[in-house]
């Protein structure tokens, strides 16, 4: 039986990686943040909203199937995808929807212990509630995606391994360690135990 979970082949900065993503355009949290009108919130500059509502609109049906599947019920063991990659991205598009969504991502990580999974999320509330009752898989890297532009968090929140911070081109230049590289060549975010807990990227306009 093949897994019903859709796996995307990434392009651009993420070329060479694959991902399990969901539909940003129907995620209520994403919509609220994207339309907040707060220029200091990185979500107002969301690449995913721009892509999925314009030139990559054809991606929405597959990502929506993932949104519905991963957030509605716990996947059966036979439905978990077998992933042969060394590094894998969660939610290159989208955001955590609920605890069931996170649970299914953890099950996929446990099913593929040889692979290093990285999940970017702003939903500290979902992560905190979930990890009160569950253990985080050793091969899952949780990266807190800081919503505030030009503010570098001094340390990750509890349960998180790293923070991802967006800054203006002329701010914190010496600390920008995620600029002008492809993820497959850098792997800073995807490597467990490398001592780096703060990622800083220059804001991109879409």
What does this structure look like?
This protein is α/β, with parallel strands linked by helices and 206 residues long. It has one domain (8-202). The protein contains 6 helices and 7 strands. It has helices at residues 28-34, 47-52, 60-72, 99-111, 124-131, 183-186; strands at residues 8-9, 18-20, 87-90, 116-121, 140-145, 162-167, 198-202. Helix 4 links the parallel strand 3 (87-90) and strand 4 (116-121). Helix 3 (60-72) crosses helix 4. The radius of gyration is 16 Å and the shape is globular. The model has no long low-confidence stretch (mean pLDDT 95).
Summarize this structure as a short list of keywords or feature phrases.
single chain, 206 residues, alpha/beta, seven-stranded mixed β-sheet, 6 helices, 25% helix
Q: How would you summarize this macromolecular structure in one to three sentences?
A:
The chain is α/β, with parallel strands linked by helices.
- Beta-strand percent range: 15-25%
Which runs of at least 5 residues are low in confidence (pLDDT < 50)? none
Profile the largest sheet: 7 strands, mixed
Please give the order of strands in the largest beta sheet: 1-2-3-4-5-6-7
Please report the number of helical segments.
6
Output the radius of gyration. Answer: 16 Å
Mean of residue pLDDT?
95
Q: How many extended strands?
A: 7
Q: How many domains comprise the coordinates? A: 1
Query: What percent of the residues sit in helical stretches (DSSP H or I)?
Result: 10-25%
Shape designation: globular
- Helix/strand-derived category reads alpha/beta
Please provide the ordered H/E string of secondary-structure elements.
EEHHHEHEHEEHE
Termini, distance in Å? Answer: 39 Å
């Amino acid at each position: 039986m093949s897994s019903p979970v859709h796996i995307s082949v990434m392009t651009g900065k993420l070329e060479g990686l694959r991902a399990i993503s969901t539909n940003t355009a129907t995620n209520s949290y994403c919509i609220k943040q994207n339309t907040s009108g707060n220029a200091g919130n990185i979500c107002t500059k969301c690449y995913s909203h721009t892509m999925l509502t314009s030139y990559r609109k054809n991606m929405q049906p597959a990502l929506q199937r993932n949104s519905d599947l991963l957030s509605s019920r716990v996947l059966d063991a036979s439905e978990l995808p077998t992933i042969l990659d060394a590094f894998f991205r969660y939610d290159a598009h989208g955001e955590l929807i609920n605890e069931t969504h996170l649970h299914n991502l953890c099950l996929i990580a446990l099913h593929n212990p040889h692979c290093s999974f990285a999940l970017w999320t702003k939903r500290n509330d979902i992560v905190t509630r979930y990890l009160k009752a569950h253990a985080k898989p050793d091969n899952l890297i949780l990266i807190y995606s800081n919503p505030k532009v030009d503010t570098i968090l001094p340390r990750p929140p509890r349960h998180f391994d790293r923070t991802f911070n967006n800054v203006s081109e002329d701010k914190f230049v010496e600390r920008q360690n995620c600029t002008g590289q492809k993820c497959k060549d850098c792997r800073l975010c995807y490597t467990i135990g490398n001592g780096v807990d703060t990622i800083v990227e220059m804001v991109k306009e879409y």
